[in-house]
Amino acid sequence: MLKLISSSRFHRLHPTPLPVLRPSPDSTSPLLRVLASSLRGLTRRTGGRSFFCSDSAEGSDHVPDAEVKTSEESHSKASAIVPTYPRPEDYLTVLALPLIHRPLFPGFYMPIFVKDPKVLAALQESRERQAPYAGAFLLKDEPEGDPSALSGSDADKNVYDLKGKELFNRLHEVGTLAQISSIHGDQVILIGHRRLRITEMVSEDPLTVKVDHLKDKAYNKDDDIIKATSFEVISTLRDVLKTSSLWRDHVQTYTKHIGDFTYPRLADFGAAISGANKLQCQQVLEELDVYKRLKLTLELVKKEMEISKIQESIAKAIEEKISGEQRRYLLNEQLKAIKKELGLETDDKTALTGKFRERIEPKREKCPAHVLQVIDEELAKLQLLEASSSEFSVTRNYLDWLTALPWGEYSDENFDVTRAQKILDEDHYGLTDVKERILEFIAVGKLRGTSQGKIICLSGPPGVGKTSIGRSIARALNRKFFRFSVGGLADVAEIKGHRRTYIGAMPGKMVQCLKNVGTANPLVLIDEIDKLGRGHAGDPASALLELLDPEQNANFLDHYLDVTIDLSKVLFVCTANVIEMIPNPLLDRMEVVAIAGYITDEKMHIARDYLEKSTREACGIQPEQVEVTDAALLALIENYCREAGVRNLQKHIEKIYRKIALQLVRQGETTDATSHSAQSVEPEKAEVDYDELGQNTVQKENSGLVEGSNPEQIGETFKEVDNVQTDISSDQAECLEIAKESEEDKKIETKTVEKVLVDETNLADFVGKPVFHADRIYDQTPVGVVMGLAWTAMGGSTLYIETTLVQQGEGKGSLRITGQLGDVMKESAQIAHTIARSILLEKEPENPFFANSELHLHVPAGATPKDGPSAGCTMTTSLLSLAMKKPVKKDIAMTGEVTLTGKILPIGGVKEKTIAARRSGIKTIIFPSANRRDFDELAPNVKEGIDVHFVDDYMQIFDLAFGDEQFQNIEKQVPNAL
Ligand SMILES: Nc1ncnc2c1ncn2[C@@H]1O[C@H](COP(=O)(O)OP(=O)(O)OP(=O)(O)O)[C@@H](O)[C@H]1O
After folding, report:
1. Per UniProt, where does ATP bind (predicted)?
2. pTM
3. Where are the domains of the chain?
C-alpha cells in the first residue's frame, strides 16, 4: 500500500536524522533567503520530522553527497546505500512503481508498500547493483465504475492486482525518479529526485518503462513576477503557519535546509504539503514552467489558508464553549465548597437523603417492614449515584413518592349515626336508600370498632346527585374525599401506574390519591364506571377489579411503587348511569344502590331547600332581595326541567339568579347616579380638600411666625391664624354635614332597591319560553294511540304507540312497523298483532278488520332507537283500539311484555316508569302482577295519586282500557280519528 505517513510515525520507523545537504550553489537568491528566514522564524524548533528531505535539487547538476540511512542500515553494511547521483543516461529504463494517494515530489520522502514479490526482488536487486532508483508514478482513477465503491483496503487490494499493460495504462505519464532509500519487508521508502515522463513500456512483469528525464523550463531568477508570486506563496504559507501548527513541522525541516531553496522547489513544497487532492498535486508535478507551477501552488496554499481560517474559527468556538462550561463547573464546585464550609448547606445528596429520612421517620412505626426496607435500600443507592445521572433522578422521584404516602395513617372516623344522618340530610333531599346504606355502614363500623372497605355503586340517570352524595358521604364519615373519573379510561397504567424504567413514569391514580389526601382510608369516588374504555394496553376493567376487590386490594401492587399497599380501608363509591354496562365481575363485587330520579314534588323540595339556597349565596343575593314563588318553581319544573335529575333545574335556577343579580345591580346603579347628581360634592373628596387646605394654611402661618421678628407683625399673624382657624371649623362643620347627608342617601339607596319577584307570569323573562316536550303530545289519546312506559339511561319516560289504517281490502291484512325499533320490539309488534286479532275474533267475531286491513304501527321520536319487549301490551291495546274504533281511557299508561297466549310478563325500571308517568300527569298505570313487589317498595310520595293495576293476563288490560262506562264518555269527546 502506498501511504503518506505522519512525520512522527516516520521518525519511529527511521530514527536517523535527516541528511544535511550541501547548499546548492545556484539555488538561493538573497530575496528568497530573507523570505525563508521569515518562515523559519515562525516555526518552532520542536525536533519534528517531515516527509521533506532536502535532497538534491531537482534539475541541478550537482551531486548530492547525502546518504540516507536508517539506524539498522547504519549497523548493517550490506543494506547500506552507496549514494550515487542518478545520471539520466543511467536510468533511461526504470522499474515503474504505482502511487495510489499522491504523487511523489522531488525532495520528499514517501513510504510505500510493495506487495508484488517480483517487484520487491527487482528493487532489492537494483539496490544491490548500487543503482537504487525506480520511477514512481501516480495511478489514475479507475476509468469506469465508481472507484469509491471499493473503499479502503478493498480498493488498495485491487490496485495491487494490477500488472503489466493494465498497470501501464493506469499510470500518469509524468512521475518522479525515486531513490529507494530503504526496504523493510514490503515497506519501501522512496525519496523523490526529478521529474520523469514515460515514453514506452519495456517489460510487463515487473513493469519496466522507458523514461525521459524532464527539466524545468529555463526561467529568469530575477523576474519580478516570479519573485512576486513566490513572495505571495511564502507570505500565504506564513499566514497558514500562524494558524496551523500542523504545518509548522514540515516547514521547520524545510527551512533547516535553506541552501536548497529555489523557486521550483518552493512550488513543489507548497503543493506537497497542502491538503490538495492528488490530481491537483499531479498537475503541479507535470508543470515544467516555473512561473505557472508557482501560480498553481499559490492557488493551493491560498485554499489551504481559507481552510485553516475555518479550522481556527471552529477551534475557537469549541474552545470558548468548553472553557465556559468548565468555568461554570468550577464556580459551582467552589460555591458548594464555600456553602459547605460555612455550614449553610450540605451537598445535594445529603440534603435530599436528609429530607426523605425526615419524612419517613415519624411514619416509621406504622410503615410496613417491606416498605421500610425498600426505602432504606433506595436511600443507600441514592448516595452512590452520580447526581447528574438519569438513574439518580429516577431514584429520587421514587423515594419522593414512597416517603410521601400516608403509611398507616388514618383519619378518625365518625361512628356517630345521628351526626352522619344530619350531615347527609343537610346536603341532599330524599335519597333515603343511599342514606340508609351509609348509616348501616357506620353502625357496623361502630360495633366492630373499625370500618371496613366496601364498594357501593350508585346508579341512576344524570343529575340525580350521585357524585354529590359521594362527597357528602365522605363528610358524614369524616373521611377524606378523592374523585376520579374512569369514563373513557383505556390505559391500565392510569390505575396501576407505569413501570419506573419508563421516562416520565407515574404511579397510578390510587397512589396519587393517597399522596393527595394524606390518609390511608379516604372515600374514593370512581365516577362513570359504566363508561370504562376498551383499553389498548391491558384491560382497565381487570385492573379496577384488583383495585376494588376486598380480597385483593389489601395487597394492591402499583407498577411504579413496586411495593404492595393496603387499600382495604378505602371506601369505594362508584357511579354509573347504566348498570348493564358495568363489566360483570366488577358489578359482582358492588352493592348497587339505584337512584331512580325525582318526581315533581321532590324536585320542588330540592329546588327550594338546596339549589336555590346555594345559588343565592353563590350570586351574593340576600334572601330578602328576592322571592321565587312556588307557582314559578312548579312551572319551571313542569315546563322546563322534566328530566329525571335536577342538573337542568339547577342550571335554570342559576340563570334566574344571575338575571336577578343583574337587575339588582342595575337598580342600585340608577339610584347611585340619581343621588350623585343631586349632591354635587362628594363627601370623600370634600374631606381631602379640607385636609389639604387646613394643613397648608397652618404651615404657612407657622413659618411666618418664626421668621417674623417684629412684635406688631407677630400680633397680626396671630389674628390671621385665628381667622383661618375659624374658617377651618366652619368648613369642617360644612363637610361633616355633607358626609352625614350622603350617609343618609346611602341608606335610602338600599331601601330603594326593590325586591325581585319571580312568579309564573314573568318566569319566561328569566328563562325564556318553555321548551317543547314531546312526552305528552295528546291530552286525550285518539283511537289507535296508547301511552306506554319506557326506561332509558336518562331515567324513565312515557312513549306513545300509534297505529293507523293504511288501506283496506279483501285479504290485505298486514302490519308495517316504524320508529327505529330493535328486533325484540319488532317481534313484540308482530305478537301484539296476532293477539289483537284473536281477541277481536273473540269479542267481535263478525269484524274482519285485521284480515282486510293494512296497518301501520309507529313509535314516535323516530330518531331515538328503541328496543325491548315491555311495550307488548301497549301495542296490542293500540291495535285493538283501532280495530274497535274505541279510544282508551284518559290518562292511562301501561307496560308489560305479552306472550302469544296473552300472558303478561314482568318488566324492569318500575320506579323510573312510575316517576315518568307521574311527570306526564298519568292517573292510571297498568303493571304486570310480577312487578307488584317493586311497586310496593316505592316511597309513598312516588306512589301518591296513582291508580295502579297489576295484571297477568291481557284480557284484564282490555277491560281496564276499554271499560264500557268510560268508553261512553270518551266517545262523545273524541270523534273517531278514522
Ligand atoms: N337529592 C338532592 N338534594 C340536593 N341536591 C341534589 C340532589 N340530587 C342532586 N342534587 C344536586 O344536583 C347537582 C347534580 O348532581 P351530580 O353532579 O351529583 O349528579 P350525578 O348523578 O353525579 O350526574 P352524572 O351521572 O351526570 O355524573 C348537584 O349540584 C347536586 O348537589
Report:
1. 460-467
2. 0.53
3. 7-298, 348-404, 417-594, 600-658, 785-973
